[in-house]
Amino acid sequence: MRIGSSIALIAIGAILAFAVADVVDFVDLTLIGWILMGVGVLGLIISIVMAAPRRDHRVTESRQVQDPSTGETIRRDETRGSL
């Protein structure tokens, strides 16, 4: 469920809960309105949390060692973390 559909559920639920005065024998429209608003709010919260930017934590480590016998320099780069 995306943000737009969550807002639509909240709006439809508010209309059913507060603006509709019809009486249906086997359905409580006010209760259905409250349920739709609750589902819409829950979907909105989940959508916002899922759309939040992720924090990437990457660590780059570089080591450089010189071989004493040959004088050759060896360099090692290592990157860890999420991409």
Automatic annotation (TrEMBL):
| Keyword hit for Transmembrane helix | yes
Domain (DUF6458) spans: 3-78
Q: What is the originating organism of this protein?
A: Arthrobacter sulfonylureivorans
Q: Which regions span the lipid bilayer?
A: 31-53
Supply the alphabetized keyword list. Membrane, Transmembrane, Transmembrane helix
Statement: the UniProt record of this protein carries the keyword Acetylation: no
**Where is there biased composition of kind Basic and acidic residues?**
73-83
One of this protein's Pfam families, by short name? DUF6458
- Polar residues bias locations: 62-72
What protein is this chain from? Answer: DUF6458 family protein
Residue ranges for the region (Disordered) are: 59-83
